[in-house]
Structure formats: structure tokens, C-alpha cells
Amino acid sequence: MLKRIGLTRGDALAILALLIVAAIGYAMTIATARHASDSGRLYAVVRVDGEFYAALPLNEDSALDVNGHNVLRVSGGAVFMESADCPDKLCVRRGRVSSDGQRIVCLPNRVSISVETQTRLPGVSERAFDGASAK
């Protein structure tokens, strides 16, 4: 049968090995995503000049004005920079982020947004996660 479709035994083994590696990679991605969601709710954590500014849960739609320069919005389980007064607007063009570890950064305004679980935020008090915490 292999000769009929133009494959050698080595070709078939290489294809099988690639499929197995892809399946394992996919399974690990799914397991990691489930672990992140099981270990705590996801938050859009906003920092200005590297200092904590606010944490907004991704499961609640909201908007936040950051120092009059940037407006971010949480909608549909993701966060995105709705507007910014920086010249290049790279942060706005970044689009929506929703997975643990993803970031949006506005360098001119020194604003960063990262998607994080509550358990990954040492030094941020539980009170900061009330959904309305901003300086």
C-alpha cells in the first residue's frame, strides 16, 4: 500500500512520528490552559511605570482610563487597549489578549497590561482583586 501512494517505510514512520509529537504538543497546550484556569481566575493586571495600578477580572466586562492617556476595555473574556494618545498606537493594534502570560505594552505612556492568575501575583493584596481597584 505504501508503494501505491509513493511512500517508503521510512517516510511513513517519519509522518507517524510527527503526528505523535503534534498530538503530544496539543495535549500539553490543553492541559496547561486548564491548569491556568483551575489555579485562579484570570485578571488584566495594569501597571504604570512598573507599579501595580489595577486588576480587572476577565470574566466581567469593564473599562478603565489609565492616567488620561490610555483606555483599556475588558469584554468577552479578553482585554484590549481601546485608545491611547501615543504616536504609534502599537498598543491599540496589539488587539485582544486572553491567555495567561499575554501582554499589551504602551512604551510611550509606560503602561503595561498582562493577563495573570491571582495566584501568580505575589505582593498584590487580595483587596486589589475587587474589580474596581485603581489608584
Structural description of this entry:
The chain has 135 residues and is α+β, with helices and mostly antiparallel strands. 25% of the residues lie in helices and 32% in strands. The protein is built from two helices and seven strands, in the order αβββββαββ. It has helices at 9-38, 90-93; strands spanning 42-48, 51-57, 62-66, 70-75, 78-84, 103-106, 111-117. The protein has a four-stranded antiparallel β-sheet with strand order 2-1-7-6. The longest helix has 30 residues, at 9-38. The model is unreliable at 131-135 (pLDDT under 50).
Write the layout of secondary structure elements.
Blueprint: H1 9-38, E1 42-48, E2 51-57, E3 62-66, E4 70-75, E5 78-84, H2 90-93, E6 103-106, E7 111-117
Antiparallel strand pairs: 1-2, 1-7, 3-4, 4-5, 6-7
CATH superfamily of the largest domain: N-utilization substance G protein NusG, insert domain
The tally of domains stands at: 2
Rg, Å, rounded: 21 Å
Q: Which stretches of 5+ consecutive residues score pLDDT under 50?
A: 131-135
What CATH architecture of the largest domain do you see?
Answer: Sandwich
Could you name the CATH topology of the largest domain? mini-chromosome maintenance (MCM) complex, domain 2
Task: Name the helix and strand elements from N-terminus to C-terminus, one letter apiece.
Answer: HEEEEEHEE
Q: Give the structural class.
A: alpha+beta
